[in-house]
Amino acid sequence: MMLLTVLSLLTLGGVSVELPASSTSKGMEIHVAEIAKVTGDDPELVARVEAASLGYAPAPGFHRTLRADLVQASLRSVLPGVEIRVTGAPRCRVTPGVQFVKGIDMQGAAAKRLREALAGQDAEATPTGALADLQVPTSSTPPSIVVPMLVGSTFPGIRSVPVEIWLDGKLYRTVNVSFNVSIWQRRAILSRAVSAGEPLHAGLFQIKRVAVDSAQGMFALETSALAGAVALKALPAGVSVSERDVHREVVVHRGDIINVRVIKGHVEVSDIAVAQADGRMGERLAVVIQSTGRELTAVVKGPRAVEVRIQ
């Protein structure tokens, strides 16, 4: 087998590569056929040389110079046994062909993905400014704009959305597109100032649609969670209340036998359950229904009292 391989290499014919003084590349990699004229008696060998890679293509705005002697050495190393002659210019100046990906298209794709992430919320996202068109190398197929799924929660403020530009099935560049995200929520807002140590109750609050100004603001407590809470510090009128502002007693303890109200549509059923965790007013915790052994997620409504809503 080894002897046959050697003999086949010795019988390979020659190929001539005529290098021009200048040429234009396409895509992210230079292939011989793009920049040079390849001739030879064996069409299969000619095709192999034409398909050979000469390395990276220059980016838009740059060029790359290919020396004839180095091109010849490179081709002989990747195609051993093939007699390759590089003729023509001693050097070839390669500049990239260019095309443009429109900034408005990248921004539109990013906005669509961001709207998906904000679905179900009272929110809007506006671009922080115009996005310039992106100059990219020419490619065999039109550039593709891909926006990966956004991971994690989206909070108010500046949000950067990564947009991938693909050329001929390869990732060329990632462009970050910025948006100003605004989120509104209906919140329990203090109607008057309260003092440190003052107990809170529903009568102190009004429900209003307010803009959330930070990630921390996303976690304000609802009125159902504030019953029995005590202010840890003085709080002004017109603000929502978060966990760090109040002390809330645990009203359900792990292992407690508790009353559970199960609601499905217009049907309500009362039962007994065992709490699987500690819980404060308004918090969610797992409970096991004694009559069925089924574990459900319930909301704490009071001392030893929870509610389960089944869709």
TrEMBL record:
<keyword id="KW-0969">Cilium</keyword>
<dbReference type="Pfam" id="PF13144">
    <property type="entry name" value="ChapFlgA"/>
</dbReference>
<keyword id="KW-0966">Cell projection</keyword>
<dbReference type="InterPro" id="IPR039246">
    <property type="entry name" value="Flagellar_FlgA"/>
</dbReference>
<keyword id="KW-0282">Flagellum</keyword>
<dbReference type="InterPro" id="IPR017585">
    <property type="entry name" value="SAF_FlgA"/>
</dbReference>
<protein>
    <submittedName>
        <fullName>Flagellar basal body P-ring biosynthesis protein FlgA</fullName>
    </submittedName>
</protein>
<dbReference type="GO" id="GO:0044780">
    <property type="term" value="P:bacterial-type flagellum assembly"/>
</dbReference>
<feature type="domain" description="Flagella basal body P-ring formation protein FlgA SAF">
    <location>
        <begin position="188"/>
        <end position="308"/>
    </location>
</feature>
